[in-house]
Amino acid sequence: MKRREFITKMGAGALAAGTGVTALGAAQAAGKRFRWKMVTTWPPNFPIFQDGVKRFAKEVRRMTRGALTIQVFAGGELIPPLQSFEAVSQGTVEVGHGAAYYWAGKIPAAQFFTAVPFGLNAQGMNAWLYSGGGLELWREIYAPHKLVPFPMGNTGVQMGGWFRKKIETVNDLKGIKMRIPGLGGKVIAKAGVNPVLLPASEIYTALERGTIDATEWVGPYHDLRLGLYRAAKYYYYPGWHEPGPTLEMIISKEAWEALPRELQLVVENAARASNLWMLSEFEARNLEALRTLKEKYHVQVIEFPGAVLAELKQLTARTLQEEASKDATFKKVYEEYQQFQRSHDAWNKISESAYARAARDR
Ligand code: CA
Ligand 1: distance of its center to the CA of 245 in Å? Predict the structure, then answer.
C-alpha cells in the first residue's frame, strides 16, 4: 500500500472510530461518491413494480447519505424496456430491473429464476435463491454477460386469467386465442390454445373486441386497474403458469466491483428489503382488489377444473424436458431446480399446504 493511500485510509478509519460514525461515514469522508443510472422494463407509473424500484433507490441514497445515488428510468425513458439487459451488460448503465424470463431468447435457463409453470411459489423461490444455492447458480449463469443478479420483488402466485367462455374440460381450450407469454404459452399450446403475445397497452382492447378469447395478466390488483373484468366474465385461478415470479435487479459487474464493500452491503440488503416489500404489497393489494372484483363487479372467480390442471401439469413436464434437450445450461439448472422443488414439495405438503387446507376446512 502506498504511503498516502495508507494515511487516507487510516484517516478515514480514525475518523470513524473517533466520532462513532459508521463505515459509510468513512467512505463518505474518503470522498467517494457513486452515481448510477438504473433502467427498468416497467411503464413509468406501474404500481408496485416501478414504485418498488423508486423506493429502493431512495432508500439506498438515504442509507449511504448520498455516497451512492441511483437515478431511475422507466422502460423507454432512456432505453427501450427490453434492451436493459444489453445496456447493463455493456456498461451503458449500471443497473437494471425486470424479470429474468424476458431474456429467455438469450439464456433459456434464465426462466427458472423468474418462474416456471407448476414450479416454486414465492416462499420456495426465496428459499431456493437465498438458502438453497439458486442465487449462486444464477450468478454463475449471468457471469459471462458481466452481470450480477439479485432477487428483487415477487408477485406471489398470479391468477390463471380472464376467459370469455367457461373452461369445463380440456376440450374447451382447443382453438382459443390467449395472451400468455413464455413457457406457459408453450405448455398451453400443446393443449390446443393459440398463445399470442401482447403488450399491456393492447390487452384490454383485444379482449374486449374478441380478437383474443382469454388473457392472463398479473393478479387482482393489476387486472382490476386494466379493467379486464369489463371484457371477460370468468376469472380463473390459480396461475399455474406463474406460481411466484421473482423480479430481478441486474448490476454491471464492473460497477459492482468498483463499489466499496460497505456500499455493496447496503445495495444487497436494500434489494432484500425490496424483495419483501413488493411481495407484501402484492399480497395486501390483491386481497382488497379481489373483494372489489367480486362484490362490486360481480366477477365469477372460478378454479380451473382438476382435469385441466392435471393435463397442463403433464404438458409442462414434457415442455421442460424438450427445452432441456435443446440447451445444456437449461438442463443443468432444470436438474438443480427440480431437485430443490421435489424436497420443497414434500415439506410444503405437510406444512403450508396442509395448514392452508386445515384453515380452509375449519
Ligand atoms: Ca403474468
Answer: 8
The pTM assigned to this predicted structure is 0.90
DSSP per-residue letters across 287-339 = HHHHHHHHHTT--EEEEPPHHHHHHHHHHHHHHHHHHHHH-HHHHHHHHHHHH
Q: Determine the distance separating the centroid of ligand 1 and the alpha carbon of 116, expressed in angstroms.
A: 11
Residue 48 Rama label (left phi>0; alpha psi -120 to 50; beta): left
Would you tell me which CATH number, out of the four given (3.40.190.10, 3.10.450.50, 3.65.10.10, 2.30.30.30), belongs to the domain 161-243+287-324? 3.40.190.10
Phi, psi of 20 (to 5 degrees): 80, 10
Distance CA 176, CA 61 (A): 49
Across the range 146-160, mean pLDDT stands at 98
121 C-alpha to ligand 1 centroid (Å): 14
CA of 216 to the centre of ligand 1 (A): 6
Lookup: cell for 162: 380472464
| Cα(217) to centroid(ligand 1), Å | 4
Which residues are found with C-beta within 5 Å of the ion, ligand 1?
158, 242
What is the domain partition of the chain in residue ranges?
Answer: 161-243+287-324
pLDDT tens readout for residues 217-268: 999 999 999 999 999 999 999 999 999 999 999 999 999 999 999 999 999 9
Contact of 97 with 38, CB cutoff 8 Å: yes
